[in-house]
Design goal:
207 residues; alpha/beta; Nucleoside Triphosphate Pyrophosphohydrolase; 2 domains; five-stranded mixed beta sheet; 5 helices; 8 strands; elongated
């Protein structure tokens, strides 16, 4: 079992512990679930290299059934078949526009908003292309369990410019991709999304 598989197992243990804390009524069970959660965080720290104290402060107390976080992204092509990308300030690398799903916004609203805020372009949704289980793709390891919603979008207006929290915004062809922010997007995913759009594959990919 490699480090990624180990981390997936630890995330499941943590989710089980948090589910127990949400639903248990007994003080004995609560202590056991708290202990199990602490063990999972210590194992997570060992595997990921993130200090335990940082992980312990990173997670808020779970008040409801634990579920995956949702990352929403827009895949946009221009007439030349180039991909719209934004440069992250946090690592100086590039990704397709997107971010965490916002409470109060639909997934499509999030995709359109992220494109506008990160690249200055207005867009509309064409369709949902794929739902990626992030842990099934070779992204760098991280504490969260994440689903990624990938929407095909079409530019309707605006002017290309980097958003206030981005370093750049530009179009890139598949054979001339910039350094990718692999926490957010992988070259294999870009190739997959490009194929879905160009071949007009209507079935939504899942996993």
């Amino acid at each position: 079992m490699d480090a990624r598989e180990q981390l997936d197992v630890v995330k499941r243990i943590k989710a089980i512990a948090e589910t127990g804390l949400v639903y248990t009524n007994g003080s004995y069970d609560k202590e056991r679930y708290e202990e199990l959660k602490e063990i999972s965080l210590r194992l997570m720290a060992e595997i990921s290299g993130i200090p335990f104290t940082k992980l312990d402060n990173f997670f808020l107390p779970q008040l409801d059934y634990p579920t995956p976080k949702v990352d929403v992204r827009g895949f946009v092509l221009n007439d030349k078949g180039q991909i719209l990308m934004a440069q992250e300030r946090v690592d100086g690398k590039w990704t397709i526009p997107g971010g965490w799903a916002d409470v109060g916004n639909t997934p499509t609203e999030v995709a359109i908003k992220e494109i506008r805020e990160e690249t200055g372009l207005n867009a509309e949704i064409v369709r949902l292309l794929a739902i990626y289980d992030k842990q099934r793709h070779p992204h760098p390891s991280e504490p969260y369990y994440i689903y990624k919603l990938m929407f095909h979008c079409r530019v309707t207006g605006g002017k290309l410019k980097a958003g206030f929290d981005m370093q750049g915004a530009d179009w890139f062809s598949l054979d001339e991709l910039p350094p990718l922010s692999e926490e957010r997007i992988l070259e294999s995913q870009l190739n997959h999304l490009f194929t879905l759009v160009k071949n007009d594959i209507q079935k939504v990919y899942s996993d």
